[in-house]
Design a protein that fits this description.
By secondary structure, the chain is of the alpha/beta class. It has 8 helices and 15 strands. The longest helix has 16 residues.
Length: about 250
């Protein structure tokens, strides 16, 4: 059983999430609920949860404030939040997970799958947590660095080090400079949402590239600095030509 704590200042939101978990996820045991930061700290100490669903925005201290206060934590976190671009980008860049409010059953199932993968992986959790705290300390999303877990090592890279992202079902190959690439358990759509503010362009269903790596558009293809030639979908071709030329 996964000992789980729900932290949210809205009773209806806690009840809704608890019911979703009870309906379809018998492996999850909700051992407690908290409505604010101080209550959450006490229950974390008392109940020792393995997983915490943590609301980002709460009166008296946010979910981010709670983790800043803890500095290190021995549980996994799935953030629960309404749309707040800065918070969502910080979570994604830090290889953590989140659910939008209100959570949908399929989104919850996928988040729990990724929880199981992270929990089983041999990650340097202290480094990942430290990097998350560094990201949320930044004033601008442009300063965020991407967390790339790889085996028992974890890398932190600036978006300028990423050349392209290639879909592989629900996974994505992230290609970095100097011929490095890593397979991450995130969809290409997630990388598009993360990286589009940094000048990344979608070419087709499978490819996302940094604009300044494209040297030529010709015959329905984008030619990249490293010699790679990627097809551009017919639907995306006109917009890509306009954006690339700008």
């Amino acid at each position: 059983m996964i000992r789980t704590l729900i932290v949210d200042d809205e009773p209806a939101a806690r009840s809704y999430l608890r019911s979703l978990l009870a309906d379809a996820h018998s492996e999850v045991e909700v051992v407690g609920e908290a409505s604010n930061m101080s209550e959450a700290q006490r229950l974390i100490d008392d109940l020792k949860p393995a997983l915490v669903f943590l609301d980002v925005e709460m009166p008296g201290g946010s979910g981010f404030d709670l983790l800043r206060e803890l500095k290190r934590w021995d549980f996994e976190v799935i953030f629960v939040t309404g749309f707040q671009r800065y918070a969502i980008q910080a979570i994604r860049f830090s290889a953590l997970d989140y659910l939008p409010k209100p959570a949908q059953p399929d989104e919850l199932a996928f988040a729990l799958e990724r929880y199981a993968e992270r929990h089983a992986a041999d990650l340097d959790r202290a480094k990942v947590q430290e990097h998350f705290l560094e990201n949320i300390a930044q004033k601008e999303t442009q300063a965020f660095k991407l967390t790339i877990p790889h085996g028992d090592r974890t890398f932190f890279v600036a978006p300028t080090e990423v050349e392209r992202c290639m879909a592989d079902r629900n996974y994505t190959w992230v290609h970095l400079v100097h011929d490095r690439r890593y397979l991450l358990a995130r969809t290409l759509k997630e990388f598009e949402e993360m990286l589009s503010p940094f000048g990344f362009l979608r070419l087709n269903r499978s490819a996302l590239v940094r604009k300044d790596t494209i040297v030529r558009l010709h015959d329905g293809h984008a030619e990249l600095k490293d010699g790679e030639r990627l097809e551009v979908s017919r639907r995306r071709w006109p917009e890509l030509k306009r954006t690339w030329a700008a």
